């Protein structure tokens, strides 16, 4: 086939002018020679162990030839030379670099190498975890100490007699994931990680059951809010971690911990379902720190704690209220509550509407009268609590003191 | 579930009032046949709780029993290959998609069959065990496991599914599959306990799925009320 190619190319060549053809060939040859010369010396870096003794020969030069060695362009003192050989004793990491050997008088480059000093790998650290049960699991690894030279990692997963493929992740590096083909397996998984570099190799093995490595990610979007008019409550809500694929069939249970910033001991609550909880025993006015963790209802271990959120329960002092106006509408009251600077006047309107839905619940007139009376009493008590700057009552209509929309 | 606090949305009010109206008219209806659905929901929860209790009990029992068998069976990283003879014990292992797609009937039947057979094997074990303490524990566990089988049967009946034709006794005459030597006998026991443990984990997940699928009592009531 090659002959055919040449034959097909033959008609092309005569078309080129002869001198141009020659020049092209010469240039091409020169490039090839230079390339070969440069890369024959340092196409492969030279790897040596920390603490080893290294002897470098100047290519094909005789032992008694006059040569000069340089490292990264700097001349090396003759005391390191034994004839034309360069002797490096007990090398350390700082001696990595490009070593070149030049013939004494002509300063021709005779030999060049890139020396990299490193260590063989120590036993790697391997961790496997299923944060997306029952989809699969991932394994991640790292070296406990750096080797300072390139390493390659090879991972193998065996399930009983079957070899499984662990697909490497692009990000983060040093991680791979496996999909479960079968669930509820009694046979253990055996994961072996081998790390190899130019100076040696090492490996580690993990053997585990499907259930033992289940550990969800921490809950997400933890939010803690004060509860209006309740100085000892905090409302906490969160979401299932997004990596957990099927919370319907594999529900999570949660562990909540909270403490005021000023104390060191945590209080704990375990919740078997739901993604919210109201703390009812908070100390009034104290800032709290709150965290949540998750676990599969039946198997595995608890997740790490979520990001901590801070919250302070509602208090009556104005400076603790939120700065936005809050307008709460219930089925039978309309109440405007405004934040205000001390000294400003705030108005509250309490009105009682006979809503149609009340008629269904309380079909008797007497019940509705009683309800209205209770409500008015409550309004009056609220007024008393908020002090003299507030006016309340059934027939008062309202002008919002701060010019805010109702 | 209605949260009757200070604020009620319009939808919740609508449902609440409808229910009140329905309840008021209830005595006029013929007797509702909804006790079975109500029963099923509760039974599933009870069965789930029972599997969790058994799983907890098994942990202690297995620890004691494996110590009785001695090394290497009581070593935590003991990972023997699964021999062909171990295939007799019903395995919980199942293809992921297959497990997801199981019908309620198939799911319950698989559990019922598995535990019936596991119970038989455990009873055989009970007769052979040496120490009194182990016999006592095994007997207690067998009783609880019997309760689980009955509970699953109860759920199936209340949902209208036929009970699978379970083996009344061991599937083969006792002694037909007896281990040829002491070590293999211990291996059999090891795999029996392992499969039992895995089945209990699987059942927890099975019953979680079933809990979601059996309709809640309130909705059932409303549908029945409309039926008149």
From TrEMBL, chain A:
Entry GO MF terms: ciliary neurotrophic factor receptor activity; interleukin-11 binding; interleukin-11 receptor activity
Domain Fibronectin type-III: 218-318
Swiss-Prot/TrEMBL GO biological process terms: positive regulation of cell population proliferation
CDD domains (alphabetical): FN3
Annotated localization: Cell membrane
Pfam name, any one: fn3
Keyword terms, alphabetized: Cell membrane, Disulfide bond, Glycoprotein, GPI-anchor, Immunoglobulin domain, Lipoprotein, Membrane, Receptor, Repeat, Signal
Similarity remark: Belongs to the type I cytokine receptor family. Type 3 subfamily.
Protein name: Ciliary neurotrophic factor receptor subunit alpha
Source organism of the structure: Ficedula albicollis (Collared flycatcher)
Automatic annotation (TrEMBL), chain B:
Pfam families linked to this entry: PRF
One Gene Ontology CC term in the entry: extracellular space
GO BP annotation list: cell surface receptor signaling pathway via JAK-STAT; positive regulation of B cell proliferation
Membrane-spanning parts: none
Keywords carried by this UniProt record: Cytokine, Glycoprotein, Secreted, Signal
A GO MF label: cytokine activity
Compartments where located: Secreted
Family: Belongs to the IL-6 superfamily.
Assembly notes: Forms a heteromeric complex with cardiotrophin-like cytokine CRLF1/CLF-1; the CRLF1-CLCF1 complex is a ligand for the ciliary neurotrophic factor receptor/CNTFR. The CRLF1-CLCF1 heterodimer binds SORL1 (via N-terminal ectodomain); within this complex, the interaction is mediated predominantly by the CRLF1 moiety. The tripartite signaling complex formed by CRLF1, CLCF1 and CNTFR also binds SORL1.
Function: In complex with CRLF1, forms a heterodimeric neurotropic cytokine that plays a crucial role during neuronal development. Also stimulates B-cells. Binds to and activates the ILST/gp130 receptor.
Name of the protein: Cardiotrophin-like cytokine factor 1
Source species: Ficedula albicollis
Gene: CLCF1
């Amino acid at each position: 086939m090659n002959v055919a190619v040449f034959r097909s190319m033959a008609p092309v060549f005569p078309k080129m002018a002869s001198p141009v053809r020659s020049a092209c060939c010469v240039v091409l040859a020169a490039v090839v020679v230079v390339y070969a010369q440069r890369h024959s010396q340092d196409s492969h870096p030279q790897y040596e162990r920390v603490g080893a003794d290294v002897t470098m020969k100047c290519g094909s030069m005789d032992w008694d030839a006059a040569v000069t060695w340089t490292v990264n362009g700097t001349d090396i003192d003759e005391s390191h030379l034994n004839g034309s050989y360069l002797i490096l004793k007990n090398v350390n990491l700082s001696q990595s670099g490009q070593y070149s050997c030049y013939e004494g008088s002509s300063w021709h480059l005779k030999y060049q190498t890139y020396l990299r000093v490193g260590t063989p790998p120590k036993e790697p650290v391997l961790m496997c975890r299923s944060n997306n049960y029952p989809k699969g699991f991932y394994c991640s690894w790292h070296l406990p100490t750096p080797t300072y030279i390139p390493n390659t990692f090879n991972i193998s997963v065996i399930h009983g007699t079957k070899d499984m493929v662990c697909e490497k992740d692009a990000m983060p590096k040093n991680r791979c994931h496996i999909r479960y083909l079968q669930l509820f397996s009694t046979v253990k998984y055996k994961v072996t990680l081998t790390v190899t570099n130019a100076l040696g190799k090492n490996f580690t093995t993990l053997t585990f059951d499907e259930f033992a490595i289940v550990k969800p990610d921490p809950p997400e979007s933890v939010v803690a809010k004060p509860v209006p008019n309740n100085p000892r409550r905090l409302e906490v809500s969160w979401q299932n971690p997004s990596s957990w694929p099927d919370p319907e069939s594999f529900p999570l249970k949660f562990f909540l911990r909270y403490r005021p910033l000023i104390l060191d001991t945590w209080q704990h609550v375990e919740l078997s379902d739901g993604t919210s909880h109201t703390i009812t025993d908070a100390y009034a006015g104290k800032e709290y720190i709150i965290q949540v963790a998750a676990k599969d209802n039946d198997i595995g271990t608890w997740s790490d704690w979520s990001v901590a959120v801070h919250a302070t329960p509602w208090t009556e002092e104005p400076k603790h209220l939120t700065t936005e106006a809050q307008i709460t509408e219930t089925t039978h009251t309309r109440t405007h509550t405004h934040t205000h600077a001390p000294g400003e006047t705030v108005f509250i309107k309490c009105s009682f509407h006979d809503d149609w839905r009340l008629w269904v619940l309380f079909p008797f007139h007497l019940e509705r009268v009683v309800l209205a009376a209770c409500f008015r009493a409550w309004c009056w008590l609220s007024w008393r609590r908020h002090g003299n700057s507030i006016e309340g009552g059934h027939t008062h209509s309202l002008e919002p003191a701060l010019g805010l929309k109702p | 579930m209605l949260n009757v606090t200070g604020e009620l949305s319009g939808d919740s009010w609508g449902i609440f009032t409808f229910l009140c109206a329905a309840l008021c008219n209830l005595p006029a209806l013929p007797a509702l046949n909804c006790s079975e659905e109500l029963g099923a929901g509760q039974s599933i929860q009870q069965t789930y709780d029972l599997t969790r209790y058994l799983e907890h009990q098994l942990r202690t029992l297995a620890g004691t029993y494996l110590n009785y068998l001695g090394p290497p069976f009581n070593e935590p990283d003991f990972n023997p290959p699964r021999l062909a003879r171990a295939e007799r014990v019903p395995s919980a292992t199942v293809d992921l998609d297959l497990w997801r797609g199981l019908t309620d009937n198939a799911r319950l039947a698989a559990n019922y069959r598995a535990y019936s057979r596991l119970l038989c094997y455990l009873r055989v074990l009970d007769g052979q065990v040496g120490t009194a303490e182990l016999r006592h524990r095994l007997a207690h566990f067998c009783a609880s496991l019997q309760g689980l089988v009955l509970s699953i049967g109860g759920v199936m009946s209340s949902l209208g599914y036929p009970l699978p034709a379970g083996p009344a006794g061991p599937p083969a005459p006792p002694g037909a599959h007896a281990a040829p030597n002491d070590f293999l006998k211990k291996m059999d026991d090891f795999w029996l306990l392992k499969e039992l443990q895995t089945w209990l984990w699987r059942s927890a997940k099975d019953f979680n799925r079933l809990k979601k699928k059996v309709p809640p009592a309130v909705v059932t009531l409303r549908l029945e009320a409309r039926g008149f």
